[in-house]
Write a structure and sequence with these properties.
Immunoglobulin-like; about 300 residues; about 35% helix; alpha+beta
Length: about 300
């Protein structure tokens, strides 16, 4: 009798152990079937589980949001926000969610109810298209530029020299925009540089301009622009000074009367000739400088 009791208890324990193992295997099988699905705001995404005849689409926290019956189209049963956006593709027989929004992210389950119930789970993540990187702070004194991008979910910023990655960054803090500084050495002057912003669904590239010449000095174009600016300022100053000189001569002529007018007029003419010569010199320099810049 005691032997029989022991055998029964052993059989019960063995059965419970097998039951637990089967549950674990089933749970792991369900985990393997779950898939990651990524979408872009404003576009569409499909849940790649073929609907045969009858099926439900479940959304975590809301239950069934659509169901399909044999011979009928997909019907929205819950949640107004999915209305006119959730359909069943007649060719692939996949549920399709269109005009995606950020808050559409979550866990969706396609439940086929033909014969034995079968479920496939999809985790949807929705992203915005990544912004175009911005190249700023072109510092010619240190031959460096700064590349930055507006931060969003899972955005990375990468600097390339040709196909080689020089540096990469990202920030989990969405209030902080990722940025990278690039300093170009003379030996790398002829290389091409680019700044790439990317997230799991999109990427944007800008080419980084060169701030320095090959010998590590500020670009000749930048230097020429500064020189031209100084020249224009000098010409303006000379014009203003010439006007003041002419005005002073005119006032002196009137003050000293007609008897001295001829003498002062001669002095005025000589002064004006000097001013004209000075102006002519600056105009010639300005013209030559402009021709050099155009080349």
């Amino acid at each position: 009798m005691n032997h029989l009791f022991r055998w029964r208890r052993l059989a019960r324990q063995t059965f419970m152990l097998l039951y637990s193992v089967i549950n674990v295997l089933c749970a792991s099988q369900k985990t393997v079937q779950s898939q990651q699905v990524k979408g872009i705001v404003g576009q569409s995404v499909s849940f790649p589980e073929r609907v045969i005849n009858s099926s439900n689409l479940l959304y975590k926290g809301l239950g069934s949001i659509a169901n399909v019956y044999p011979g009928r189209e997909a019907k929205i049963t819950l949640e107004k926000r999915f209305e006119n956006r959730l359909n069943l593709n007649n060719v692939t027989r996949y549920f399709i969610l269109s005009d995606l929004q950020i808050d559409d992210a979550g866990v969706y389950t396609v439940e086929n109810t033909d014969g034995e119930k079968k479920q496939n789970t999809f985790e949807l993540t929705v992203y915005n298209v990544v912004s175009k990187p911005l190249v700023t702070e072109c510092d010619s004194s240190s031959c460096s530029v700064v590349c930055s991008v507006d931060n969003e979910k899972e955005v990375t910023l990468t600097l390339y020299r040709g196909e080689e990655i020089l540096n990469q960054t990202s920030s989990p803090d969405l209030t902080t925009d990722p940025s990278l500084r690039l300093e170009v050495e003379g030996k790398d002057y002829n290389s091409t540089y680019s700044c790439v912003a990317a997230n799991p669904v999109s990427n944007r590239t800008v080419h980084v301009p060169k701030c320095c010449s090959e010998n590590g000095h500020p670009n000749d174009a930048d230097s020429d622009e500064r020189t031209l600016g100084m020249l224009i300022i000098a010409v303006i100053c000379v014009l203003v000074a010439s006007g003041l000189v002419g005005l002073v001569i005119y006032l002196k002529n009137r003050r000293n009367g007609h008897s001295q007018g001829r003498y002062l007029s001669l002095r005025g003419v000589r002064s004006l000739h000097k001013v004209k010569a000075c102006l002519a010199f600056f105009i010639i320099v300005f013209t030559v400088k402009g021709s050099v810049l155009e080349r």
